[in-house]
Amino acid sequence: MLEEHAKLLAVLKSAGEIAGRKKLQKMIYIAKKLNYPFHEKYDFHFYGPYSEEVTLKMEELTNLGLVIETEEKVKGYVQYRYALSEEGNRFLANYNVALPKLSSCVHLLNQQSSRFLELVATMLYFEHLPKEKMLQKVAVVKEKQLYTDGEIEDALQFIERLQAFIQ
Amino acid sequence: MIRNEKLHEEKVFKDPVHRYVHVRDKLIWDLIGTKEFQRLRRIRQLGTTFFTFHGAEHSRFSHSLGVYEIMRRIIENLQQFAKWSEEERLLALSAALLHDIGHGPFSHTFEKVFHLDHESFTEEIILGDTEVHAVLAKVDQDFPQQVADIIAKTSENQLIVSLISSQIDADRMDYLLRDAYFTGVSYGQFDLERILRVMRYHNGQVVIKSTGMHAVEHYIMSRYQMYWQVYFHPVSRSAEVILRKILHRVKDLTAEGYRFQQPPEAFSSFFTEKVDLSEYLRLDESVVMYFFQQWQYEDDEILADLCRRFVNRKLFKYVEFNPMQVKEWYELYEAFQEAEIDPEYYLILDSSSDLPYDFYRPGEEEERIPIQLLMPNGEVRELSRESELVDAISGKKRTDHKLYFPIDRIEDLSANGKAKRRIIELLKREEK
């Protein structure tokens, strides 16, 4: 009935809690790029790959009481935390969401900062380009984020690690 | 070196929304004349909405011209605050005109069923071996790529990107006015002229002068009402549900090796999920409707029935449904099976997240760039922080779930009274 929603619930269950909408968006995108069967449509926005469908589904899940959304003030802006409710846990039990290694993958992604995941997601968005061109493109679209060479190298290694991990 | 010629004399298109669409550049005139752009005449802007609002037969062609016209006027207004180079002007106008070039017939449904992105077709049309590409490349060798980057929102020129795709952009402003006009509703009206006059440059982005806040409030309210009254209309959604199920059925039958009387030749590469551009470009709504007409007479009863429903507007009925009622869902599912009405095709839960529309979001946590007001002291403030009206509707519950089913099939279940009573009882419980 809500099979695609159930996959988002499975991510939250694996993560325990996800701090920030941006982080959640990038985690789903990265999982999708790792060939996990998420079918939400993404396109590029100022802050990297973004899916209105993910936003709407999370809103639906929150309104149904399956997800707990907590609002908090962090450094002057509002941040939202997401976790599965008890009801959500029971609801998820009705679905057989069999996604191999999803739990470890989500755990790995959730340990990273949203800034870092934004860089990783943006790199993956341009992965069809040759490496040099991909890096040039990332430098153009992420100019204001001022990513350091170290962060870029870390992100490249992280992508390799993720790809090796799910194989 | 940018190459562009002016037309010997200005051309105009009569337009019901903007009165006239003005074209002075040969580049724009030539783009409009390409076969890929002309194809947009055969694709409705609002998909299945014409089943509800019979006037909504307008095409992506007229919308694309409208977005171009709004962009032309935005540039004309902004020229007084900062100089636009000829290259930037042509880039903005071309991207505005071509922003929907990759849309196919009933785009959203095709994308969902076949896991496609119209954006990738947009890029292929602009960069591939097409008439559009040939026209753009005459300006400069890199020009097609620049236009593609603007539409994909990955260009370094974020100002032009935001004019075509942001929370208050040429695209949205045209489609709200145009959709309101053609559906015949009065909700979508707002003062476009006023909004264009209060747009300003600020730190590389377009902001709204604070005195124009009420015009923007009106635009946000129009958007909000159009979503609920037109875009989320349950009857249009019913047609969309049937369309989705037709495509699923054809996909399933093809996989099973079913022998069609009218084989789905026009869709063959869609089943491989590696859709060839030339096949994609040949597909338009008239082609899709031709196949649906023919499939009404197929031996497969499900496909024939769904096509008859779509062609003759015999749509599914709906009730509100709370997806938390998992037990009731399974009961209904089993009752449909018992009555030999295949629930995979005839019992469908449709959620608001299945629709390709969005509301205004204040842009918390750097999700999307919000509408910014330029205050008299030079500060910029997000719209919902200044407007109580926008703040009130920004936080509203915006989700709903509906259950669609063919009431006529259920009413016809006279021979199987028990299953019929059970289904009606369960559905009535949902209606309460």
- Note the main sheet of chain B: 4 strands, mixed
Number of helices, counting only DSSP H or I runs of 4 residues or more of chain B? 22
Order of strands in the sheet with most strands of chain B: 3-4-7-8
Order of helices and strands of chain A: HEHEEHEEHHHHH
What strand line-up does the widest sheet of chain A have? 1-5-4
Structural class by SSE content of chain B:
alpha+beta
Q: How large is the radius of gyration of chain A?
A: 16 Å
Largest β-sheet summary of chain A: 3 strands, antiparallel
Q: What's the overall geometry of chain A?
A: globular
Q: Overall pLDDT of chain B, averaged?
A: 91
| Helix count, DSSP H or I runs of 4 or more residues of chain A | 8
Mean pLDDT value of chain A: 92
Taking pLDDT < 50 over at least 5 consecutive residues as the criterion, the unreliable ranges of chain A are none
Calculate the terminal CA-CA distance of chain B, rounded to whole Å.
68 Å
Whole-number radius of gyration of chain B? Answer: 24 Å
Low-confidence stretches of chain B: none
The number of strands of chain A is 5
Overall morphology of chain B: globular
Helical amount among residues of chain B, as a percent range?
40-55%
Report what the structure shows:
The complex is a heterodimer of chains A (167) and B (432). Chain A is α+β, with helices and mostly antiparallel strands and 167 residues long. Chain A is 57% helix and 15% strand. Chain A has helices at residues 3-15, 21-33, 52-63, 86-92, 102-110, 114-125, 131-141, 149-166, and strands at 17-19, 43-45, 48-50, 67-74, 77-84. Chain A has a 3-stranded antiparallel sheet with strand order 1-5-4. Chain B is α+β, with helices and mostly antiparallel strands and 432 residues long. The model of chain B has no long low-confidence stretch (mean pLDDT 91). The termini of chain B are far apart. In chain B, the strands form 3 sheets. In chain B, strands 3-4-7-8 form a 4-stranded mixed sheet. Classes of the chains: A alpha+beta (167), B alpha+beta (432). Chains A and B meet through helix 2, strand 2, helix 3, strand 5 and helix 7 of A and loops of B.
